[in-house]
Amino acid sequence: MEASELELFRRGIRHATETCGDEALDAALDELGWRDALVADRNTAVSLLFEAQGSTVVDSSALDWLLAAALGGQDGGRTSVVLPLLRRAAPPGRVSAGRCEVHGLGTRTVARADETVVVAEADGGPVAFTVKASSLELRPVRGLDPALGIVEVTGDLNAAAGRPVDWEAAASVGQLAVGHELVGLARAMLELARQHALDRVQFGRPISSFQAIRHRLAESLVAVEAADGLLAAAWEDPSPVMAAMAKGLAGRSARAVARHAQQVLAGIGFTTEHPLHRYVRRTIVIDQLLGASSVLTRQLGEDVLERGTLPPTLPL
Amino acid sequence: MELDAFKVAVDAWLDEHERELACDYEGVGTLDQQVAQLRKVMGMAYAAGFMRMGWPERAGGLGGSNLLRAYLGEVLTARDLVEAGIYSLPEVLAPTMIDYAPEALAAEMVPKLLSGDEIWCQGFSEPGTGSNLGSLACRATHTDAGWRINGQKVWTSLAQYAQRCVLLTRTGTPESAHRGITAMFIDMDSPGITVRPIESMHGAEEFCEVFYDDVVVPLDRVLGEVDGGWSIAMDLLPYERSTALWHRASYLHRRLGQLVSAAPAGTLDPTAVGEATQLLWAFRARSRATQRRLAAGETLGSETSIDKVLVATAEQAIFDLVAEGLGPDVATGDDPVSARWRAEFLYSRAATIYGGSAEIQRNIIARRLLGLGDDR
Predict the structure, then answer these.
(1) pTM of the predicted protein model
(2) Of A165, A181, A201, which residue is a domain's last?
């Protein structure tokens, strides 16, 4: 994208995520040409939108669109994709004896999508089935973050018409998207805490003057920038290892920032009168989408120890 | 020369001269051996032209981007030909001279540093001046014969080997704080200089106390403006957190790789290994972005404090793993390989202390990057 075009796009995305969410945000993204941008410049389209979604705690169908496009189906524009259960990054379905058993999660898009893609592990590698939403059982989940509108998806499908897909590549792009959303959440939580620290006066001075507060906030910025830097590097080398590493760190960073922000915001941050709780809820849930940070981090360590070598280094 | 061509040329040269360039000692070596190795490698790389690339022609360099310097240090460290910490000292000292010394002095002196002919040191810290650099007291008095220096410095790396020193002195009143500091370029063989190496916890005498008793420095050896030394220090500190840290990451990468292949099965917690790996990769990603900004002509500032916090955190995470996975070697191994792990584990404890402590970096981040205002 040209610099001027990019700036317009950036502003459009920011405005859209600040003013609407859910279906209205889908419409706004269509108007902004987000899906065309996804084809032309995936890195920019994904990083801008998902960080913006994180910083405003809104959601859209973008994750479904992104995964559907990465799985290479004919996208009529109303396709959703069944996600793995929380913590897991493996496909949500399993093929055996001519049937495909499905147990996963969906964004709220699943309920209104024309078609849903289910990816399943099979003997010859992952295969995808495109099915009507009506052939799956959807159970709305409230849980920690009811605003996210997650559904639990179960089903038992005829496994005849599966097409081979590169699930790992699609999941990697999904991990980067969720990673950017976590960075957006973390930046926003840091900003809420920073502003509170400047405003809140105790012992006759703003609490931002106390080193205990300052160092928590500094630590938070280090965590956010580390995650953001690794995500940017992962786009340059979009391998599954890099994507998992970047999402793992983004999740750990966002959780760390959530802890610091909660402590700095103290009493007011514990109420629902302050927006912090929405960010904390969203962080804990999406950290676990497409592989929880704890799982991805441990897996990285296990792989390194098993092979006795490190992943490919980042070249200058 | 572009980076890709430079990489190919350097790698080929290193392969060709592998035997001559190699260390002639096993394990960590003595500081004498490390310094001799450093001078040998720098001398050869200078003669081959590589050591001059990325430095301006007016200071004896061959021009080109800072990325060339970053790569040379990275690969020399990755191949274990130089100790990254002492190799990177010119990354702060040479820019000081290039930016602030009279042109002829920089043109004369910088090549001596880059070629390994000379070792230079940096006299900033004092016994009463650790984190609070603005309180330094080493006095420089203006006389007809030159500046007369009296005072003491500490933590001066390699002072016992150094021919020159970039010294910060107090030229204003004691109360002038950061406004009354002047930087000078000193010959270490000047009468009145006494160097006393300090034996550090990791077993080497890398750091020294340096005493200045009526040392006379010619008036034309002032760097920048009289009483303008604070801005020099502030301009230079980001350099200490850019290319030098990229070199350090190369060292950490080599050691983490060696650790995961050497640690006996079951001794390392996979989660801790994953965390350390993520941190090191995040640091490299960030440091690479810093290198690219520098190459694009941007001025580095307080944001490099984030790089410093990250690399120190990664270094300690990695060597905490060393102390687990190779715990017995670190604790009781007397062979050269174990002694090296031990020395480097101990050295890693200082990663959050030297070059601006972790607390000072967080103070900078809080004030400059987060806009939290004064801390009092």
Answers:
(1) 0.96
(2) A165
